[in-house]
Design goal:
Elements (H helix, E strand, L loop, with lengths): L1 H39 L12 H5 L17 H10 L37 H15 L7 H10 L3 H13 L4 E7 L4 E4 L1 H4 L3 E4 L11 E4 L7 E6 L7 H9 L28 E6 L14 E9 L4 H10 L2 E6 L4 H8 L7 E6 L6 H14 L7 E3 L6 H17 L7 H10 L3 E2 L4 H14 L5 H8 L5 H17 L6 H19 L5 H10 L4 H18 L8 H5 L22 H20 L13 H10 L4 E5 L4 E2 L1 H15 L4 E9 L5 H9 L14 E7 L2 H7 L3 E6 L13 H16 L2 E6 L7 H13 L4 E7 L11 H4 L8 H9 L22 E4 L3 E2 L6 E2 L1 H19 L7 E2 H10 L1
Parallel strand pairs: 2-11, 5-7, 5-8, 8-9, 9-10, 14-16, 14-17, 17-18, 18-19
Antiparallel strand pairs: 1-2, 1-6, 3-4, 6-7, 12-13, 12-15, 14-22, 15-16, 20-21
Helix pairs in contact: 1-10, 14-18, 14-19, 16-17, 17-21, 22-23, 23-31, 24-30, 26-27, 27-29
């Protein structure tokens, strides 16, 4: 018996070595396949200098076209554009070949008209039909998984992270292990996965705190792997989708053979491991499982990808093996799994394979893998699919009810390291940045105490300064300003600024400044990302309200929820460290202007340049402080001056802003349109207004009329308070006027058809007096009546024609008379222009497992095209250069 055991072990070892030799041969073949695929997709140039996030997001002429890819080289850019727009069809790699000029359809702005073609003879008909068919057939179809792998291999770490984050929002399965045969190693995408953050509920029914928002990298859940052994008549990806799909609605998380181009052979994607999660909504009538579950999918045969399969056995609670045949080779490999804590299940199609052989090997595997006959499932063409899926779900539920391992993606990465798999996060720059972040966040024990002791120039000192500056601004425009009072205010302001300037940056702020001062651009970007996540983890735990709680809050006035007091304390974020830098710069600049400090003694003059580097790399910077509702004008001006010096000849600028109350979807709208990084407020995010810079491609800047677009998100500034709120309302109205006054184009995001925030209406009335009116678009989101999407502008006019109490009160405050009660009564209102948009909801169904709504993506694209057309056609305010914007900031 012992001899037999040694013999079996020797055979297994020999089989594994043989498998490794076959893998080495396959790697050599795959290397040429990879190079061919990269060349086919036009990505070969990005193997040394990787594709960056800024490359992917810049505005070009293609940004205004809703076109189908015509060649394989179009596919990567088409995927990135559609993914940015949360388009559910982003993975579709269907191509329409370029037609001769005389047969190309002409794209029209208006609705496409049918073309009727008349043919002279039957001979002509047949000739033209065959000719047209040849034109439409792509020569080189590309499997979507090959496209994804090639693009990830050609992207830097930050673009990889953006791709994975958007895929998560689209409910696509995420790449976890990326095969790279060119360099003889696979990569575990831990860093790329860190951007995936999801929210889910818990059972029993929701109460305050029953919703959890967390990074999918950190959350532990049972993991279930689905793999193929040799050939399987059943599609494991389709089975996974069926298991994850609630009710009758099909969820195509995993790309599978029954989808368009799903049967195309994979050239480089074999060995890819994908992951997706089931996340409960908290409703027993909707949830398939009561807790989060992770599902993993290995592309390709386990015999050819033994390393990936070995990892799956280390991290999974159960593995489902789909096969038609169990060969001697596969039996020996599986026998080496003896002693594993993982449960194994087989899904067979015996009529297509060798039934008796399968049974013989299964009987020998049962004691080795600690299985019983319930671990063997049979699925043939006559099997009831619904009942089979129900059985698989029952097995998953049974495994989770018994003691089983629960793992996070971080745990999976640790297991991968032990097996020699490269982890993307282990690069030196990333680890250096993580260490610095941990040194800073380790000292944060209490948020309020940290703000008070470490961020000393904010809070009460900044509020006092903001109040004095506001009073100075008000008397500046008075017809007969009292000089004595003005002098007192200036003296008080200098005293406050001197008190601020007497402080030195705290240790934590100095560490932050050192982090963003690194000469390595990669280190800076890693550091900022780590700081965002690290500060989010140390924030005091706050219960998250369910969507029902938010939408059933009873309004105080006029149908508007009162957001004047935030639901949650503002979380500590990177913006607070940058705000502290801004206050040091403001205090010093004020003293230099007043002659109280020699210019040669400045210590913080370089701060705007440090912040500008972040803005140029796509990081949003705070324009208006949400706590004091005040702009740090010297800091903003310093940033713009640095920007002007940096951009030199490419300094033509268009300012696009989005205003609206929290929860109306404006941040998500901007992020979807332009791929930006504004934080959706959801009632508890950053309260201030933020700005982000988008580059316009040089080949398109002359046509568009600008070199960059500065996008401003009003965040939580416009709370919807009534005119009776006094100072708070006046401050909101002033800030809305400031943002709109800076803008060439303004998008007003609304949630209810008759509820325009009074501060925004107030701003329109003020700007109408000055003649400085931006091009404006009103966007209604999350309408219950989705059919309104297709309605025409003239059919929508009544939506803003109804007078409201808010409108009357605001108009009376501006002393415009009783004749003006709504926006439709204002002189600038042109009902013939399409000012009103209806954007359907983002989700089909109940989150977190709801599919993205294709109509949302399409509507956002049309809005984006309209905005860019208006900029190009000069319908917005005259485009500015940065010097003009600096002067406008000063005047406003």
């Amino acid at each position: 018996m012992a001899s037999s055991g040694h013999s079996d072990l020797g055979e297994v070892t020999s089989e594994i070595k043989a498998s490794e030799r076959r893998t080495a041969v396959a790697i050599a073949e795959e290397r040429s396949r990879l190079q061919e695929m990269l060349f086919l997709l036009g990505l070969e140039a990005y193997q040394t200098q990787k594709l960056s996030l800024q490359d992917a997001l810049q505005i070009s002429s293609d940004s205004m076209k809703n076109w189908a890819p015509q060649t394989p080289k179009d596919l990567p850019w088409n995927f990135l554009r559609k993914l940015q727009a949360l388009n559910a069809e982003a993975r579709n790699t269907t191509m329409v070949l370029d037609l001769p000029l005389d047969t190309r359809p002409v794209e029209k702005e208006s609705q496409m008209e049918e073309e009727i073609i008349y043919w002279d003879t039957a001979e002509d008909i047949s000739a033209d039909i065959y000719s047209f068919s040849e034109l439409q057939t792509p020569d080189t179809p590309v499997n979507p998984l090959d496209l994804l792998c090639a693009l990830l291999l050609s992207s830097d770490s930050f673009l990889q992270q953006e791709i994975v984050s958007k895929m998560s929002l689209c409910q696509f399965a995420l790449p976890l292990i990326l095969p790279d045969p060119e360099n003889h190693y696979h990569t575990f995408l831990l860093w790329a996965m860190r951007g995936a953050v999801r929210t889910w509920g818990s059972q029993p029914p929701r109460v305050v705190g029953s919703f959890r928002e967390d990074s999918m990298v950190l959350s532990r859940a049972p993991a279930f792997a689905f793999v193929r052994m040799e050939v399987s008549s059943n599609s494991k990806s389709q089975l996974l989708n069926d298991v994850l799909s609630p009710g009758h609605r099909q969820q195509d998380c995993f790309w599978h053979r029954d989808l368009n181009l799903g049967t195309n052979p994979r050239e480089i994607a074999d060995g890819l491991v994908e992951i997706s999660w089931f996340l409960p909504s908290g409703r027993e009538d909707l949830d398939i499982f009561p807790e989060p579950m992770a599902f993993l999918n290995l592309r390709g045969d386990i015999g050819s990808h033994w390393l990936q399969f070995k990892l799956l056995t280390e991290i999974s609670s159960a593995i489902f093996i789909l096969t038609d045949n169990i060969s001697k080779k596969e039996y020996k490999l599986l026998s080496s799994m003896k002693g594993s804590a993982t449960k194994y299940y087989f899904i067979l199609s015996p009529y297509r394979g060798k039934r008796n052989t399968n049974l013989r090997f299964l009987n020998r595997l049962i004691p080795v893998l600690k299985m019983d006959h319930s671990h063997v499932l049979v699925k043939v063409s006559s099997t009831d699919s619904v009942g089979f899926v129900r059985r698989v779900r029952a097995i998953v539920a049974h495994v989770t009810r018994s003691p089983c391992r629960r793992v996070s993606v971080e745990d999976m990465a640790n297991a991968a390291r032990k097996l020699g798999v490269k982890v993307d996060e282990d690069c030196e720059e990333c680890q250096w940045a993580k260490d610095r972040m941990e040194r800073i966040t380790r000292k944060i024990k209490d948020l309020d105490a940290y703000r008070r002791d470490e961020l000393r120039l904010q809070g009460e000192p900044w509020r006092k300064v903001a109040q004095v500056e506001k009073e100075l601004c008000q008397i500046q425009w008075a017809s007969d300003p009292p000089e004595k009072y003005r002098a007192e205010l200036r003296h008080r302001l200098l005293e406050l600024r001197m008190q601020q300037n007497d402080h030195d940056p705290s240790w934590g702020v100095q560490e932050f400044i050192s982090g963003i001062s690194s000469p390595s651009l990669g280190e800076k970007q890693y550091f900022l990302k780590w700081m965002e996540w690290g500060l989010g983890r140390v924030a005091q735990p706050r219960p998250r309200p369910s969507p029902e709680m938010i939408f059933t809050l009873r309004p105080k006035h006029c149908g508007a929820v009162d957001f004047s007091e935030p639901f949650w304390p503002e979380p500590l974020g990177v913006e607070h460290f940058l705000r502290e830098m801004g206050q040091f710069y403001e205090a010093e600049s004020c003293l230099v202007e007043a002659g109280k400090l020699p210019a040669g003694q400045r210590r913080f003059a370089h701060f705007p340049g440090l912040a500008l580097e972040l803005l140029l790399k796509g990081f949003p910077l705070e324009l208006i402080d949400g706590n004091t509702l005040s702009p740090a004008s010297r800091w903003v001006t310093g940033l713009l001056k640095e920007l002007h010096a940096r951009l030199e000849r490419r300094s033509r600028l268009v300012v696009l802003s989005a205003l609206g109350m929290p929860g109306t979807g404006k941040s998500t709208l901007l992020n979807t349109m332009f791929g930006l990084r504004f934080v959706p407020g959801k009632g508890r995010g950053p309260r201030g207004a933020f700005m982000q810079l988008i580059k316009v491609a040089e080949s398109f800047s002359q046509d568009l009329g600008c070199d960059h677009i500065l996008v401003i998100d009003s965040g939580g500034l416009i709370a919807g308070v009534r005119t009776e709120a006094g100072e708070r309302f006046e401050r909101e109205a002033s800030l809305a006027t400031l943002i709109m006054g800076l803008s060439n184009v303004t998008v007003v995001s609304l949630a209810e058809t008759r509820n325009i925030p009074p501060a925004i209406l107030h701003a329109f009335l003020r700007l109408e007096k000055t003649g400085h009116m931006p091009n404006y678009q009103f966007v209604y989101q999350n309408l219950h009546d989705v059919s309104a999407l297709g309605s025409k502008p003239r059919e929508r006019r009544h939506l803003l024609d109804q007078p409201s109490d808010v409108g009357r009160a605001t108009v009376q405050m501006e002393k415009q008379g009783d004749g003006i009660q709504t926006l439709a009564d204002l002189a600038f209102w042109d009902p013939e222009k399409q000012h009103i948009w209806h954007i359907p909801g983002l989700w089909h169904g109940v989150p977190p497992m709801a599919a993205v709504n294709l109509a949302y993506s399409e509507a956002i694209f049309e809005l984006k095209r309209c905005l860019l057309e208006n900029i190009r056609n000069g319908l917005s305010n005259q485009n500015k250069n940065i010097q003009q914007l600096i002067e406008l900031v000063r005047r406003l």
